[in-house]
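Exercise 7.
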Amino acid sequence: MRTLFLDTETTGIEPQSRLVQLAYKNGLTGEEVNAYFKPPVAISYGSMAVHHITNEMVADKPAFADSAQYTQLVQLLSETICVAHNAPFDVGILKNEGVEISTYIDTLRVSKHLIQSDQYNLQYLRYSLHLNTVQVTAHDAMGDVLVLEALFNHLTNVVKEKFSCTTDDDVISKMLELTYAPVPMTTFAFGKYKGKTFDEVRAMDRGYITWLHTSEKQKPVGEQNEDLMYTLDLCMNNKLGTPTLL
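Solution. The predicted structure, written as tokens, is:
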């Protein structure tokens, strides 16, 4: 498929974080790239504890903007669809580096639409879906890319079966649709009603639903939880449980 499986390791988890490691695999050619870069800011200790890349390890690496990988990535993104897990984060990081990605497939959101799971992080899905035949190191960008590719292939089979997609273009089109469609939430994972379903809370305390809806809506759009806002809108309009595009 015309896909580019991509993952980044970064200086932190904040929106302004910068790129430290970039890995990707071209779904058309099988070409793999795995490179390290010296960021313009220090790597946080919290990030080091996850990906084990230190400032000393990248001290002699080039800046991403000055690297051959920068030009190559921009060219590839004009020819392929970027695929990433929790893609908005990687897209935001690359935007900080001057690389704009307007269209992407987010396997995190696609998984939430298609798979029943207690958790949706990449390594959890790796084991729960028996993708662990891929021998990789977790939280290494290249290792995560290989697991990402295996997850995408699994999701491709689900999409083909569930939506009767027969071509690669049909699969990509459906995954793009799912990527940009909010996922209705079923159970509160926070607050005084943690563990209860939205249906239960709506029935027993509609005032709380109204308050939460107003509170979330008052946040700047970029700070709103899209899935929560979508679910609360359904609750407010008594449409929770109504079939969606799935």
